[in-house]
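re: that complex we talked abt at group meeting.

here r the seqs, copy pasted straight from the sheet so there may be weird spacing, ignore it
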Amino acid sequence: MDIPYTTTPREDTGLYNAKVGIWLFLASEVMLFGALFSSYILLRVGAAPGTWPHGLLNVPLGTINTLVLICSSVTVVLGWASLKMNRFDRYRIYQTITVLCALLFLCIKSFEYRDKFNHYEIIKKDGTVVDGHLIEKTKDYYIIHPLPKATKKSMESEHPAAHSGAAAANEHATATAAGEHEATGEHAGGAEHVKIMVSDIERAQNYGPWHNTYLAIYFTLTGLHALHVLGGALVILYILVPGAKMWKTDPERYTNRIEISGLFWHFVDLVWIFLFPVLYLL
Amino acid sequence: MEHSTHTHHAGAHDDHHHHEELGFWQKYIFSTDHKVIGIQYGITSLLFLLFGFSLMMVMRWQLAYPGSPIPLVGGLLEKIMGPLASGGVMSSDLYNMFGAMHGTIMVFLGIVPLAFAAFGNYVVPLQIGAPDMAFPRINMASYWVYFLGGVVMLVSFIIPGGPAQAGWTSYSPLASIIPTNGQLYWVIGMVFLITSSLLGAVNFLATIIQLRAPGMTWMRLPFFVWAQFVTGFLLLLAFPPLEAAALMQFMDKGLGTSFFLPTGLMVSGKMAAISGGGSPLLWQHLFWFLAHPEVYVLVLPAMGIVAEVITNNIRKPLWGYKALVYSVLTLGFLSFIVWAHHMYLTGMGTAISTFFQTTTIIISIPSVIILTVLFISLWGGSIRFNTQMLFCLAFLVMFGIGGLTGLPLGFSYADLFLHDTYYVIAHFHYLVAPGTIFALYAGIYYWFPKMTGRMMSDFWGKVHFWTSLIFMNLIFQPMFAQGMAGMLRRMYDGAVNYSAATAANAGVNGVLSEAIIYSNRTISMAAWMLALAQIPFIINVFWSIKNGRKAGSDNPWDSTTLEWQAPTPPPHGNFAVVPVVYRGPYEYSVPGHPRDFSPQNMPEPVSRKA
Amino acid sequence: MSNHTAQTAAASGGHAHGHGHGPEEVSKAVRKYLLVFAALLVGTIVTVLASYIDFGHPGINIGVALFIAIVKASLVAAYFMHLIDERKLIYGLLGATAFFFTGLMYFTLWSLEPGSFIHLKH
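got the structure back, here u go
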């Protein structure tokens, strides 16, 4: 006995097996990302007033990424439609665009991540804080290009050493909409490069997930999402290239594979549709 | 094993898929056949159950004779665990480690894989008349991911510093500030296990939705399938938040984030070098969001097995099939909104505690309905008291005790006193140990002839039953008294510090009495006797594979459900032709029929006796 | 976009398939896809611009952003993911998921603020 309904839909459900499977899987993914969103909300609501950072992320880049993913979403479904209309050539073009969009998304994301890892907050032993991009680092000194005060948003939870008055007062800027973190390394009218000797440093930390809970949840949410983008893109690429033989032997099953991977891809886009405003804009 | 997956089935196979004879590795190790995978899950999970039980047996020595060297295994422990077991004595850290791993292994590596994956994999496709699961390769993947998770958990025992020790609940911040790596291994192992369960859940649900044979409508499904269906949903929707939480706890320990670590955390008198801003409560919410539905995952397949076995052995239809189905659906739904009854003492506040208390009490209703339905079914039945039936009858009573003792825990006011005491341990063990495990034993005795074509020894089965029943009760019954006296959980000295035996406690109100402390010894002895009582069972299983009395037919229990209408053991593809279902699952003793049971796929007789 | 069996034109040459979509139907669907695409682009721009407007209470910004996000998500789900053509089964599954997800979010939040239903602080 063969397993039925692998391609032909079952009458009462109207679905073939893989479609049921992918929707079930997507439901579990909703709960996965949902738990992370819940964590975000809980951490933010629970944060002491004025301590939740704003403006740490680059909105134009995030917007571009959003548009890129939306494009890829439409190309994926147009690719499926092309197969339904028996246009394998058009399908190939659309899916290639999809994969390229995914690649672009990941590139922009990596750039954003790298930028964060190069952004340092250095607390000196005398209590002052230098916050900006790392130009050079040796075992003796750091060279930082400080961010201008107006955009230095970081009032994260207290560091043990930052409790000296000057530092605490310095870092209390919590303006919301105005500040945009320039990721390109050009800082509007900031100070010149500052050199700090390691011996003067109480604590140096970059803006990784350990820096504050906002960054922690940001990296987790976007990192998990990026892994899904990568995984989905690999699957689509596989079906496009080595897996394309099946179009000759079993076109209907092949088309279904496009539909299934497309459903996953749309889900990935959906998550980003929520991630973007929540992390970048609010 | 004895299982055959031979693929040459003259003419019956669809010619599109021409099978070459599969090699050993593909047939028995990397098989995609649900029956082989079911047996793989079964063997692995039974071994883990044995291991988890062994951990507890060693812990029981420490509880009975605190501070004294452990006989038999003390030397071995010292060799493996080093200073944690110096002199063969269990240290407090080692006690916590064994405790945490006992819970984790029994729940995630033992019961869930056995109840859901092993029995489910083997029986469900057969019971719905399907040739296999909907996604056989994903099925195989889910087993091997489970296996990997188990390896990670076992390996954690031999790393420096030992395994996880912050309880099976792994609460932050404790879990993140322990300087050794055991918790990291725990978290990684959990991610593997959760992934395995998710893959399995998708498979089960898709299979039950899509692959039911013609005529097998929803309301003709055996209750075991309904139970597995709801269990699948619980796993599908409740596990992911724990996966997210595990990821976050991994980052807290491994990367220095502060998801669950609050501002101002002091470790060993110094401020922790963390960003702070996290919430320990968040971990608890995410953990219990899974862990509560998880306990229903532990129980529902067992209830399914009990329904099958009882109906088969009363020779009359199950009373209240519809009530059972609606109850199990309601139970599944409600199980998602009761979780914070594990968190009454966190200072959440009375409003939210009241909400969860209400839903918790409400959820007892469908559970009671299920038990009641099974009890009422017995009335007027022609009862066969074979081994599996005895285990199921005991299940009803034991599960009843476990469930009823949960009521005081559900009320937040009473829970103020009982939380984290031995009362809780007694409550949940009654449900899982003489509850679920008894049902799983019943399943083994019941379905053994389908897998092997031979019967297990009913005599030794009954010996196994009576000894297990007695010792289970001797272990867990006194724990209710201990808990009510105020004895707390997870105390490695058996609460001697809080007892009259400690001189400093003279005159203190509420001190634990000698009798309570002495119970530790009787409980421990009963535990060791329980272990001995499993020996006839283990021998019975292995011996009967080759030497048991032959079953004599494909359907030695005269059962109505489809798995018994398949060949023994079922070949690859299960049924030679697609079965067609004509009736419900429990048509026993239908008036006018020549036999006292009508299999689901038997066409109506052309002429019926008057 | 329906999945009913035995539809029309053999788009894929004589292969007995369960859900046949004639080329005409699919090309109608393509128009819908492009419309949704345009809507998504517009929605994105609007979301970004709206985030810069000060509505007074931060809750309003959140509400606006989430509302637009939900609209966009619904469009993707309904049209790109063909949900609008599916039967009850999938809706039931997603409905249950949405319910439990909301429960998780809501109750965890509630536990933070004893005595209140929800309280956003900035």
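couple things i noticed - Residues 1-18 of chain B have pLDDT under 50 and may be disordered. Chain B touches chain A through 57 residues (CB under 8 Å).
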